[in-house]
Amino acid sequence: MTITHTYRSFADKNPSRIAIQTESEHITYRDWNRLVTQTANWLRTQPNVPKRVAILLPNSLAFLQLFAGAAAAGCTAVPIDTRWSAAECGERLAVSGADFVVASSLFKNKLTDSLTPVVWLEDCMAHIAEASADPAPAVDPELPFYMGFTSGSTGKPKAFTRSHRSWVESFQCTETDFSVSSNDKVLIPGTLMSSHFLYGAVSTLYLGGTVCLLKKFIPAQTKEWFTQKSISVLYTVPTMTDALANIHAFPDSSVTIISSGADWPAASKEKLAAKWPHLKLYDFYGTSELSFVAYLSPEDSKRKPHSAGRPFHNVRIEIRSAAGDLCQPGEIGKIFVKSPMKFSGYVNSRTPDQSEWMTVDDMGYVDEEGFLYIAGRENGMIVYGGLNIFPEEVERVLLSCPEVEKAAVAGIPDEYWGEIAAAVICGNTDAKKLKAWCRHKLASYKIPKKWVFTDCIPETNSGKIARSSVKKWLRGMVD
Predict the structure, then answer these.
(1) Which of 84, 185, 355, 409 could form a disulfide with 88 if both were Cys (CB 3.0 to 4.6 A apart)?
(2) Using a CB cutoff of 8 Å and minimum separation of 24, what contacts does 233-236 make?
(3) Domain encompassing residue 470
(4) Which segments constitute the AMP-binding enzyme C-terminal domain (predicted)?
């Protein structure tokens, strides 16, 4: 099965159901199936049938049409971020090996450094409208359909691909573990360049629900859509959730919140649940390479607020020591995952063995019930006089302080200790108060030795801390 194979069935059974609703247009499943099929047939009839098609468009129905159409044609879709500079776009396009890029003329200036052929959106849509609507030939589910770029929190972004099979397996998690169905109206307020929001839209279409797509995240507008569109599911990241909570955006009706992309502090979830008890809060841990790994249900969140959750129904987790032995519950080691949802591999790199265990070098432990706890990234670990400090653990403690809005922790060189932990803080507090706060929750050696207060902490497009930028900035202060 492929990510688009259910469209025809929904077009036959529920032709008038709305597939996608944007701020300016909507489309039924009958017309959605036709458009995707025409797009696939147009691609298949090109003189040189493309293998990879780049997309340089904002959030829109056209973006999803080209993405799904490329997948239905057996091509790999390569979303290009409209926020990237011309140099970044040129670099990503070169890495992708795209045969051409479909772009809006609004972004001509983004393509000045690219050698990739361009097809302008207006011309593309005119050709697609003339293409056949006959069903396209079947596509091998093992083929890659999506090329993304890692967020680059620890360095330069890398390109990776995913197969149809990997996402279809993930769709079963959305249906089984998150209880999302064809009856849902799913709000996607974030950029489709983020795999979290792109997945939210594509999985909803696969399951036969309605995608409510915003051009960009505006809290007040998101609040309006909750009431006007009877939203039942929201894909979000913690910073968005906090922004919505600040303006009391959530409705009185039940809404399923599916959050990922960054660590969601337990204190924030507890406040949200206390104020809006009818919300169903799902937080999950996953990576570009592994896809879904573990999730925290609304019920589990009350019992184990600091956990990343239990493994998804089709995932197995092992914690291994440096020697490769299985760790005991509560013992920190490297997280290994066995899953049918793993990526196909990095571009221009060896394809991983899909049948075996895989790690992205995250460290953590499981408790007696099998719930996963994330300590941090092995390559982000701070070695302080031979003792290991995980920045993520310290950040979680700092973020639990009511006066802290954002926090980032990184290691900086020290002649005596080797490395010391430095904290960058956004908030209305000071180092003395934060040291006292940390003493109650952390071992003394984990408390940051240097404190920097600022109005802005660098973040990636997906809302994670841009650790490489934070580290570079901090180290520049001590050089």
Answers:
(1) 84
(2) 233/180, 233/184, 233/185, 233/186, 233/187, 233/204, 233/209, 233/258, 234/186, 234/187, 234/189, 234/258, 235/186, 235/187, 235/188, 235/189, 235/190, 235/196, 235/197, 235/200, 235/259, 236/189, 236/190
(3) 381-478
(4) 393-464
